[in-house]
Specification:
This protein is α/β, with parallel strands linked by helices and about 290 residues long. The protein has helices at about 25-50, 70-85, 100-110, 135-145, 170-175, 195-210, 220-230, 255-289; strands at about 5-10, 50-55, 90-95, 115, 125, 130, 150-155, 160, 185, 215, 235. It has a single domain (about 5-289), classed as Aldolase class I (TIM Barrel), CATH 3.20.20.
Length: about 290
């Protein structure tokens, strides 16, 4: 399995064919417009310096709690394949609300690298109803397909209340040791909402002991980036990169540049300190001569 990226930019697709907000439109035209938008956003994110891209059917609200219709799978497959053609960085798939089987199939046949699963383990009460984890079937299907697609699993996912363990760390451990997730994601309570840092700190310690990547999957902003990175967490971001910080809005190039500048600031500081240290060492060596 390939190593997982540290910084993932999310493409919020517009409503696809069959979704209520695309009702009455030509399905082929809907696909064409969504595909062009995805390609443009993928190129912007890749050029800006993101390490990976994740595609999700964000505009398809209200979401199905389980399997999505065939037209959604077909649309996402075509779009993912098109993005893979123009992108040299890894691509991920998230089929909302929780069609992990479709996400795995799409990612596997398009050569994508990872999927996001909102509920891999346990049971969650959501605005779509009760959603049950499907790790057993998903992992067996991945083996059957001989797929190398990685699975990133949310723990106590946003827009939901867990009906399993209330303890985040117990749920995280279950997702890794019993659900066999390749990486885990912590979020705030809703899209764009910040994660609880007291929980993130403890989760960071646990994931390091389990040797799995930990992602912050919502609410990452410039002010918190340094703190998130100090805890060794990786980042999945979309809303903060868009106009007015609003999910589903067009990408904002200014916001993207500012976000990436803040993201890399820690590295720059470390490099500067290292450079100054080297200068001092050399100067000291000359004096000793």
């Amino acid at each position: 399995m390939k190593s997982l990226p540290s910084l993932i930019g999310v493409i919020h697709l517009p409503p696809l064919a069959g979704a209520p907000r695309s009702a009455g439109e030509d399905p082929a035209l809907v696909l064409q417009n969504a595909g062009l938008q995805a390609i443009q956003e993928a190129q912007i994110l890749a050029k800006a310096g993101f390490e990976a891209i994740m595609i999700e059917n964000f505009g398809d609200t209200p979401f199905y709690k389980g399997p999505v219709p065939p037209e959604t799978i077909a649309s996402l497959s075509v779009i993912a394949a098109a993005v893979r053609e123009v992108s040299r960085i890894p691509v991920g798939i998230n089929v909302l609300r929780n069609d992990a089987q479709a996400a795995l199939a799409i990612a596997s046949v398009t050569g994508s690298d990872f999927i996001r699963v909102n509920v891999l383990s346990g049971v969650a009460a959501t605005d779509q109803g009760l959603i049950e984890g499907q790790a057993a079937t998903l992992l067996r299907n991945r083996a059957r397909l001989a797929s190398q697609v990685a699975i990133l699993a949310d723990v106590h996912v946003k827009h939901a209340k867990t009906l399993s363990s209330d303890h985040v760390l117990e749920s995280l451990e279950d997702a890794v040791l019993r659900g066999l997730a390749d990486g885990v994601i912590l979020t705030g309570q809703a899209t764009g909402k910040a994660v609880d840092f007291s929980v993130l700190e403890k989760a960071s310690e646990l994931t390091q002991s389990l040797s799995v990547p930990l992602y912050v999957g919502s609410g990452a902003n410039q002010a918190d980036l340094s703190r998130i990175r100090q805890l060794g967490a990786r980042i999945i971001v979309s809303s903060a990169l868009r106009k007015n910080g609003r999910a589903g809005a067009p990408l904002d190039v200014k916001r993207i540049k500012e976000f990436l500048a803040a993201y890399h600031r820690k590295k720059v500081k470390k490099a500067a300190v290292k450079a100054r240290t080297q200068v001092k060492v050399k100067a000291g060596a000359k004096k000793r001569r």
